[in-house]
Amino acid sequence: MDMKKRIHLELRNRTPSDVKELVLDNCRSNEGKIEGLTDEFEELEFLSTINVGLTTVAHLPKLNKLKKLELSDNRISGGLEVLAEKCPNLTHLNLSGNKIKDLSTIEPLKELGTLKSLDLFNCEVTNLNEYRDNVFKLLPQLTYLDGYDKDDKEAPDSDAEVYAEGLDDDEEDEDDVDEEDYDDDAAPGDEEEDEGEEDEEEENEEEEEDDLSGEEEEEEDLNDREVDDEDDEEEERGQKRKRELDEEGEEDDDD
C-alpha cells in the first residue's frame, strides 16, 4: 500500500487538522519521498514512518507542533537540515537503522533547540571512536542518546509510564464504578428502609412465636381440662357404685 492511500485510510473520515498521531509504518513511499502529508496536519504531534523506504525527509510539510518523529529502518543518509525548519519543536527523533555514517550528517540537528532524545542504533556512525562523547558535544541540548544520558542512566520508558498511568486511571474508574454500584444498590434512605423491614420481620417472628406459645398453652389447658373431666366422671361413677352397694346392703338387712 502506498503512503498516500495509507494516509487516507488513517484519517478515518477525520480532517487532517483533527489528527494528532499518524502511524504509516511499513507502507510504500514512491521514490523514497514522503507523500500525502500537507500543512493541513497542523495539530500533528507524533509521526511514525518506520520501514517505508525513505531516502530523504526533504518533502516533509511544515509541522510546527510535531514533537516525536520516527524514521527508523529507512535509507536516509543526509539532508537533516530541513528538520529545524519543518519541525522546529521536535523533542524526540529516531534515526535508527539508517545510512548515517559520520557526525557531519547529524550536525544540522544542533539547530533543533528543543531536541532531547536522539536514537542512532544500527547506524554506522555508532562505530566511531568516542561516539557518545562526541555526539553530546556536538548536540549539547540532548539529554538522551540511544536511550541513555551522559552518565549512562537509562531514559524512562515514556510508553510504559503512559501505560501505567492508564492502568491507574482504569483502577480509579473501576473504584468509581464499584462506588456507583454500591450507591445504586443502597441509595439514600434505602438502608433505613431495609432496617425497618428487618425490624418488622423480627417483630412478626416474635408475634408468631407468641402465637405458637399461646396455642401450646391453650392445648395444655384443654388437655388438663379433659383430664380433670375424666377424673370427675370416674369419681361420680365410683360414688354411684358406692350408693348402689349401700342400697343393696340395706335391702339385705330388711330381709
From TrEMBL:
Renumbered residue ranges of the record's region Disordered: 165-255
Pfam family, one: LRR_9
Residue span, U2A'/phosphoprotein 32 family A C-terminal domain: 128-146
Classification via InterPro entries: AN32, Leu-rich_rpt, LRR_dom_sf, U2A'_phosphoprotein32A_C
Feature: compositional bias, Acidic residues: 165-236, 246-255
TM annotation in the entry: none
Record flagged with keyword Repeat: yes
Record-level GO cellular component terms: nucleus
Presence of the UniProt keyword DNA-binding in the record: no
UniProt keyword terms in alphabetical order: Leucine-rich repeat, Nucleus, Repeat
GO BP terms, alphabetized: regulation of apoptotic process
Family per similarity comment: Belongs to the ANP32 family.
Function: Multifunctional protein that is involved in the regulation of many processes.
The name this protein goes by in its record: Acidic leucine-rich nuclear phosphoprotein 32 family member
